[in-house]
Amino acid sequence: MLKILILSGASVDSIIYLNEFPQPIPQTIHRSVFVEKVGSTGVGKAANLCYLGFDTSLHILIGQDTQGQMIQDYLQNKPVKLLYNYDIKGTQRHVNIMNKQGERISIFVNTTSDDPDFDYTLLEPEIAESDIVILNIFNYARNFIPILKKYNKEIWTDLHDYNDGNPYHEDFINAADYIHLSSDNLKDYRSAMENLLDRGKKLIICTHEKRGASVLTEKGDWFEEPIIDDFQLVDSNGAGDSFFSGFLYAYKQGYNMQKCLRYGHILGGMCINSPQIAPETLSEKYIRQNYIKYFGGK
User: 13-27 b/e with 16+ CB inside 10 Å = b?
Assistant: First the structure.
């Protein structure tokens, strides 16, 4: 069992579901659905990977508040080793406005501290024991990079809706061996992926929402795979982290790139078919059954 350490990413999200995004004019909206859920990219990845055969640890910042307790309660029933420090700014909170197509407007109404005051070396034993580190792009997480370099760990990072040349991402790109990103803000995703590969990366994975996903390998080989258009949309929150987790699972099984992309799409599809940030029924057996359902033995 490979040991994965995920560094950062937890929030409580207030989610408003509308048929359409509101027009940018003053108005009152009388009909909507509202829920509060645990979210963010670290929790999303941990909630998937812990059921896919990985020994999963997650480090996050939370507040000594109701939202921080919600996150702890959500994870305590999952096979995740939760490591946390309290943040004087409180737990990160988002307001997500969703339309019926699954598109999202996300507003960060409370963010974690950029440089919280805690001893990062206390996590050194966890880092030393990990086979894989997922370094999420929260500002405080960049402070782990010197320790990660010390132990020469395999690092995966998720740049999310990256835009070329954004200096915020540079430390994370430089540290990573494997990079996942979305093409949402890219004018030319192939060029952006090639530029990242030229910086010594081993693999670049790029998602295109309903247009599928692409992989560029260290050897310069390209692979493309469309989505599986068979999963009913319930809630798209967490789909990117589920894709990431499905791809990583297949990659560590030694599968070829086409199969890795398919596993990513399967888990992403399972996620949008669930009201939670990760599918409630997830297991290695279940994701493999879905693979056979859609692709047979290929």
Answer: bbbeeeeeeeeeeee
Would 9 be classed as within a structural domain? yes
Residues 164-213 have pLDDT tens digits of 888 999 999 999 999 999 999 999 999 999 999 999 999 999 999 889 99
CATH number at 183 reads: 3.40.1190.20
Helix count (H) and strand count (E) of the chain? 9, 13
Whether residue 89 lies inside any domain: the answer is yes
DSSP β-bridge partners for residue 81: 57
* Helix or strand run (H / E) with residue 57: strand 55-62
Structural domain of residue 93, as residue ranges? 3-19+34-116+129-295
| Rounded Cα–Cα distance for residues 90 and 66 (Å) | 10
Token pair belonging to 89: 């700014």
Per-residue DSSP letter, 280: T
The domain tally of the chain equals: 1
Which residues have a Cβ under 8 Å from the Cβ of 138 and sit 6 or more positions away? 8, 9, 61, 112
Cβ-proximal residues to 69 (8 Å cutoff; 6+ apart), any chain: none
Residue 142 lies in a domain: yes
The pLDDT tens digits for 26-53 are 999 988 899 999 999 999 999 999 999 9
The fraction of the chain above a pLDDT of 70, given in percent, is: 100
Q: Is residue 121 part of a domain?
A: no
Structure token digits, residue 180: 């996942």
Spatial neighbors of 288 by CB under 8 A, at least 6 apart, are: none
In this structure, what token pair is assigned to residue 114?
Answer: 């950029």
